[in-house]
Structures are given as structure tokens and as C-alpha cells.
Amino acid sequence: xxxxxxxxxxxxxxxxxxxxxxxxxxxxxxxxxxxxxxxxxxxxxxxxxxxxxxxxxxxxxxxxxxxxxxxxxxxxxxxxxxxxxxxxxxxxxxxxxxxxxxxxxxxxxxxxxxxxxxxxxxxxxxxxxxxxxxxxxxxxxxxxxxxxxxxxxxxxxxxxxxxxxxxxxxxxxxxxxxxxxxxxxxxxxxxxxxxxxxxxxxxxxxxxxxxxxxxxxxxxxxxxxxxxxxxxxxxxxxxxxxxxxxxxxxxxxxxxxxxxxxxxxxxxxxxxxxxxxxxxxxxxxxxxxxxxxxxxxxxxxxxxxxxxxxxxxxxxxxxxxxxxxxxxxxxxx
Length: 333
Ligand SMILES: Cc1cc2nc3c(=O)[nH]c(=O)nc-3n(C[C@H](O)[C@H](O)[C@H](O)COP(=O)(O)O)c2cc1C
Prior knowledge:
By secondary structure, the protein is of the alpha/beta class. It folds into 2 domains: 9-250, Aldolase class I (TIM Barrel); 260-332, Non-ribosomal Peptide Synthetase Peptidyl Carrier Protein, Chain A (Orthogonal Bundle). Helices cover 47% and strands 16% of the residues. It has 14 helices and 10 strands. Helix 1 (31-40) runs antiparallel to helix 11, helix 11 (260-277) packs antiparallel against helix 12 and helix 12 packs parallel to helix 14 (315-332). The protein is globular. Bound molecules: flavin mononucleotide. Flavin mononucleotide binds at residues 23-28, 48-49, 78, 105, 107-108, 147, 177, 209-212, 232-235.
């Protein structure tokens, strides 16, 4: 009998209840959104990327990024940096604060990261990347993972080689975004390279990542790559229900359309969670705009709704437009 597509993932210290995971997204994967994704069925959530140096120096921004709740566990806190000693110290501090899972960012393509030798720049210096994973492993007793791109550019697609190195140094799970740094977000994520990573580390679970936006994509991704699980980023923004729909499909259920009321209930819950995380209402309103735009994407009248949200002078007006838009959909249906 063939393996079921959706299944738990057993790791050294814990078992993920299924193999669907929310990707780390700076500016998006904050605590409220992670809670929404967990409640929608993601078995694991990744934090926004956090500077190891900022963490060690105790910066206020870093502290905000590290806000967590027992209700989201397991959460993988992602660190970026290029200095093995600083990353090790950041791991010790995080462990001291109760973190059970730390991830290393070997994928970020942004220039600021690259200039400092962090993110996907580490794919150009595998000996350093290996030292970093080793030093993090020595410093941290919890679950350690690495997230990488497929390579620097088409001439240096070295994710399988780095995956082997990282697993050899103690990484317990590897996520691969099937694009090179040079590709940024262009083209389509390459499932063939993800499959080669899966084959390179047969004893280490791999999460396949890139362009999973519909239920079918998840099943195809798992089938074509042989990966242990799927990591979903942009496809979950505005559509956290993608996790529950994949789970329902795996159980043999049909893809029922969400009612406008269900959509609105999740959005209102999301706003309530954001209210706890962002005590300043103008900061909250600024942050909420991108989620509301994503929640309305593809729905009739969404362009006008987005415009009204952009122009809203305060949070209450924004929420009124939101209730009118999503509530109105029910009446129109
Ligand atoms: C807004 C945004 C922020 C991101 N921030 C991070 C990050 O902090 N760390 C990271 O490893 N990847 C980051 N990524 C990459 C995603 O985790 C993921 O690899 C990529 O979006 C491809 O997956 P997707 O097609 O499912 O979105 C980010 C992507 C987006 C769109």
C-alpha cells in the first residue's frame, strides 16, 4: 500500500501531528498569524527571522519578534547570522528562555543579509555554514533545523550537499525552498532539486517549500519530491484555511467552500489576537492592512475593499469596512 500523503513526523524529541508547516515570513509570521495557522491545522509554525546578534545584544525589536505563547507550540524560532560564536550564544539565550526549536536561516536573499554573510550567502561558504550548525548544535539541546534555498544561482545548486553537511552536524529537519538566491521569487519552485535533497539525507525529514497555494499543490509536491512534509508561506497568507482543507482532503472529505461568516469569524479572531500583540492601535492598523488585503484577494469587490482599508483613518473604520465587506458577501450569496 502506498504511504498516506498526510502523516505525523517523528523527531528525536517530539512528534509533529501532521506534515503541514507554516513558513517563516518576516513581517507576516508573527505570533497572531502563527496562532491562526496552528488553529487551522498547521502542525508546526516558524517565526519571523531574528538576528542572532540583535538577540545577544538584547535589542527591543528582537524582543518583540520573539514574543511567543504556549498555545502555538511547537514553534521554530528562526535565527540569522554568520558568526558561529554569536549564533551559539543566541541559541543558549533562547534555550534559557524556554525555546524548544531553533532554525537557521540559509535562504534569505535580501542584500542586507548577503552583505553580512548571512542567509543564502552561507550557500557560498559551506565550511562556515557547517561551523555554524555545529556550534548551534553544541549550544542547544532542543530541536535544531535548517532552512535553505536550492543554491546561490543556477551554476551552484548545492542544496543536496549542504543538506548532507547540516544533517551530519546535527540538524534534525531540513526545509528547502526550490529556488536559487538569484531567482529571488521568479519562476517556479524546482521540485526536482527538492527531490535530490530528500535523497541526499534519507534519515532526516525534509520539508518541501515553494508555490503551494492550493490543496492539489501540496499533494503534488509530496508525491513529486518524496519529502516528509510541506512548508507553506504565501499560500497561507489570507488563506490559513489551506491547512484544514488539505487535512480534510486527506481524510477523503470534499473541498467545501467557506461561508462568509466563517471567513469573518477567523478574521475577527485574528484581529483580536493582534490586539493583544500590538497594544498601539495605529501600529496594529498599519499591520492589519496587509492581512485584510490578503483575506479579500480574489473575492468579488476586493479592489474597492482594499482601497477603503488603505484610506481608513483609524482601526474602527477599518473594522467596520471589514464587517461590511465580508458580511455583505453572505447577503449577496
Ligand atoms: C514576505 C516574506 C517574508 C519572508 N521571510 C522569510 C524569513 O524571514 N525567513 C525565511 O527563511 N524565509 C522567508 N521567506 C521565504 C518563505 O519562507 C518561503 O521560503 C518562500 O516564500 C517560498 O514559499 P511559498 O511559495 O510557500 O511562499 C519570506 C517570504 C515572504 C514572501
